[in-house]
Amino acid sequence: MKMNRIAAIVYRQFCLIRGSFSRVISPFVWVAVDMVLWGFITKYLNTVSKSGVNFVPTLLGAVLMWDFFVRVMQGVTTGFFEDVWSRNFINFFSTPLLIPEYLCGLVIWSIVTSFLGLMLMISVTSAFFGFSYFAYGMMLVPFLLVLFLFGIGLGIFASAMVLRLGPSAEWFIWPIPALLSPFVGVFYPLSTLPIWMQRISYLLPPSYVFEGMRSIILQGSASWHGLFWGATLAVLYIALACGFFTWIYRHAVRTGLIARYSAESF
Known about the structure:
This protein is mainly alpha-helical. The chain has ten helices and no strands. It is about 75% helix and about 0% strand.
């Protein structure tokens, strides 16, 4: 892989952001609104609940981590969709650009945008609700890493689905996080779920993240073995997603479906 080609993909995404005020403001506004909304909900629950549980770290913290995961996934898919919407995707591969270089560029851009979103979410929750993730120190890093890895894998897989089904299939992609959220226990323990849902949960890396974070907040310790298994699954899914994207791309080239992404077919 050539770093200058990867840098070109990242620079292209940067130019899109720089040239459009709405692309800069929109994702960060929704992140801030989400944190403020859930922050006030958790404060209200603290005033009416007699359980003695502090809902700010248990619920607001879960929302923050789930939004981080969504931003990572959308960082990859939105970068790909920008090329689809502009009918520019096929132009990349008329050059010596390789598929791994293209995907690496999208991943790096996702790192940038998701990190900025994370900093904004932490700032809002700390300033308005007095909750700081920095209190957990380096203990937080493995949990965010697992969410980041799975978000990357899911973003690449979702992009491959659009590449296979066509530009109009993007509406399949946006609901994916919402469809996964009941299975990964963002707001409740996995033991709440019926057995058949729990079996699916054990195949999803975020399940181990949210179970581990709840265990740290409520009990002061976590199952690092479970988190390691979640990280292993996330890395496996990234490898499978990259292979799937490559296979779909070659199929599209071989069958001529790639022409749907050219400006001439618009």
